[in-house]
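Q: Two folds, back to back.
A: First:
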Amino acid sequence: MLAGSGWAAGVAGEAGEGQARPRLAYLVSDLRIPFWDILWRGIRSRAEGLGYRVQVYSANNGAKRELEHAVKVIRGGVDGIIVSPTNSSACATILKFARQGGIPVVIADVGTDGGAFVSYISSDNRDGAYRIGKVLTRRMHALGWGDGRVGIIAIPQTRENGRARTAGFMEALDEAGIRGAGIRQQVDFSYQETYPELFIKKGAPRSTN
């Protein structure tokens, strides 16, 4: 990831024979979530291939712990930081501290509410959610459920990518003339949180197909 910024290649080129390898820190919101674990494995593989040492620091979905990790690695003098933050506001704080320490930062997903960084790597969250919404609304109309409503269980809207996903999905609903039925934001991203009985509405239409 850092190689794409042009910064990594320069640092790697300066580390000659016998010199210590440059160090990277990956600050991630919660390594227990499979998506972040997969991303970490990719970061580690690429970083090691470029001659870097890299250490991961999981916040276990806690912004306070994430900030503690950031302060630790900045004081420890890492050469670069990759961050997948707990939320976009927290990311802005990390960027502020990293800039004060003269450490470059790459953001890997989620996004930031502000601050200076080398690169932001993400998917097109708004378009992806819009496309999912189009698939859902076409199916609803095909089943004769055009008068139905759609509830949204979303990642936190304090995340830039969360806001983008919601906006794209709502755009698809609006175009199809289907109403929303409110939004519930995830907190711990667990199965139990996503599928509670609260969201199971008695008498809701169900497909037999």
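A: Second:
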Amino acid sequence: WQGHWIDAASSLRMEKDAVIILDPLNHDLIQKAYKNGNKNWIGGNCTVSLMLLALDGLFKKDLVEWVSSMTYQAASGAGAQNMRELISQMGVVYKYAKELIDDPKTSILDIDRNVSSTINSQGFPVENFGVPLAGSLIPWIDKDLNNGQSKEEWKGS
């Protein structure tokens, strides 16, 4: 391949010839890399990119001494198969709650019990997450890096 490569894959961000695009923040670095023949242009982590773009002016005026960022991981951080599983989970929840939802006389507590029962049932799709995400939350998305971080957390650090 002789052309330019534009990607957002986290696996490429740490390559030596990768330039993370945060224009206008690193415009000079982008121009220098282009003039030096670089052809690998990588999008940054969504959380980090937006945070840095928002804080750029404050950094330039030396108004920021320290930043602590936190991310709330999304199913999308674990990939397409996990996003599909979440949608499947939501479909199963709706399928088993629809009749109750459609009846205005049904109490919300009865609907909630039905949803909880469905989510905790044997056949509920959890092949990728390992646990239900629909109607819930899980503290860990993506692979364990064996250093106290998940891969999704690492992308934001």
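Q: And?
A: The chain is about 40% helix and 5% strand.
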